[in-house]
Structures are given as structure tokens and as C-alpha cells.
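Page 42, continued from yesterday. The earlier attempt failed because a stray header line got pasted into the input along with the sequence. Redoing it now with the clean sequence only.
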Amino acid sequence: MRVSAGLPTGMEGLTYPIPFSDPENVIRIAQAAEKFGYDSVWGNDHMTTQNYVRAEFPVPPRFWEPLITYAFVLSETKTLKVGTGILVLPMRHDIVVTAKQIATLDHFGKGRLEIGVGIGAYREEFQALQPDSKLNRGDIVDEGLQALRLLFSERVASFEGKYYKFRDVELFPKPYQKKLPIYVSGNHANNIARTVKWGDGWLPAGMHVDRVRAGVKTLREMAEKAGRDPKTIEVCPQFVVHVGKTHQAAIESFRKSQMNKHLVSLSKSTLKGQGTATHEEINLIGTPQEIVDKAMAFREAGVTHLLGLYFAANSVQELLDQMQVFAEEVMPKVK
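This time it went through. C-alpha cells are written below.
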């Protein structure tokens, strides 16, 4: 099972305090991930500040564009991969430009790029970029996935969709990797269907192990009906992590984090439907052995990649310390 770490490209005010993610610290965290043996780092994609963040902080957060950020990360690391967790396609109006950026980055990074796409957690961001829009974000992602596949595979591509249109585009060079991995984000069953149709992996977030197991069962059934080998589709959930010397210490520390506030903010959107399970029960929060046990349960449920583990911390040093203890005491037992 692969293990990767979250990178705070767009997380100030959401999961971390302000200030937190200056460029030097983003690079520092990525280099630490490489040193500690993580497979990759995954950063998210925000274009404007969410309403609840504006209400809490007197200064705005710094949201870095992930693909440009990764150009610097790749130049400052040697083996570490980078991934978008996620690239919000509905906020990216020109899919050809997005495809060109991805292919360029894949070449300059010598194939160390993976792409996660989705609709985005906050509808208010989409509405800020397209005020009065009646567009369906899910339909935009459907078209975007098809368009990216065409642009990356065909010498000359044309596409006539409702949201994306282009004609006679020769996008070259194609990505450096023969098949650049594209993961589809989202907990809803619609995203499992999108994964089977167009993706290389399913990227849910904050799901209880029972829901993950049920989702994997659905994915495998859909894949078999579609003539795909389910073993070729990655299952890559994101989780929050906080390691403590005791169970109670881990819980108490996590509840004081900005990360906890963020999860509460998502309870009515991205994380809706998690039932009575608490964030502490769902995520990798506890002693090293408790986290190992949870991770092994997820592996048994069909998880192939603990992708973008977001460490709950209120300072960069605390984040680095959490990454190190996880790498030393948990990772060797679950990889």
C-alpha cells in the first residue's frame, strides 16, 4: 500500500492557521516527505476564500495554484511524486490550457505527476467565479475527463460538449508517462461510475472503513460489467492524521486543531452521509498502533494507496514532527 502526504497548497485558514503556507515552508514540507519516505505529496485547488474562513481570520489565506507550485517542488526534490488532490475542473474554463499545463509539468518532472480531479468541496467558490451560472459541476467533470483523455491520447483531437469545445487541436508533446494516472475524487456513487468510465483510481475522503468497503464492492461490480479489470483501478482515500502517545492525548490535541474546524465545515457537503461515526473514529487519529490497525483495516477493505494524508497541526514544526513519527512508527507496518 502506497502512503503519501498532504501538501498545504490551499489550506491556510481551512485546515491550518494563517500564516502557515509560505513558499519556503511548502518546499520544506515536500522535502521532508521525500526524506521520510512518502511516495508523493498532494495539494488542493482553491481560487477564492471561503465565507467561514473570512469570518474567522482578519487577513486572507494564501492559496497557491498547485500546478505552478509543483514546478518548484519537482525542481527541489529528486524522487518524490506530486499529485493534485484535487484539481477542480469546474473552476478551469479552458480544458486545453489545463491539459497543456499538465503535460508540460509531467515532462519537466520526468513522470513524477499524478492528477486527481473533481467538482470541489465548496460550491460558493464556483459561484464566485461564475456568478449567475446554472452549470452542473458534475456534468463539467464528466466532459473534462473525456476531453483530457482525448487530448492526451489522440494526435489531433476535437470535442463538442456543452461546457468544453475545441476543434483540430494537436496537443504535443503528450504527457511524459505513457498513461498519466487520473483519479476521480468524491464520495458519491456517481464518482465511482466516473472512475470506471474514465479514471485510473477512485479518490474519496474521510470515509468510514465500512463505507469504503461498500464503495470498493460497487466499483468492482461496475468495472466487471464495463469489461475493466478491477485490479487496475486504484482505491486512494484521503484521511486526516494525528498521532499521540495515548489515545486521549491524540483526541484532545486533534480537537484543538484548525483541521477539526475544517472537518466540521464539510459535514454538510463533502462529508455528508458519514452517519454517526465521529471524525476521530473515521480518520487515522490515535496511538501509532491504533493507526496501524485502522490502516490495515482499510487495506483489507480494498484500499491501495493512503493518498494525501493531512496531518492535523497548528504549526509547521508540529506538522513535520507528525510526518516523522508516522513515517517511523506506522508506515513500515502498512506499506
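Notes: The two ends are 5 Å apart (CA to CA).
Reminder to self: strip header lines before submitting.
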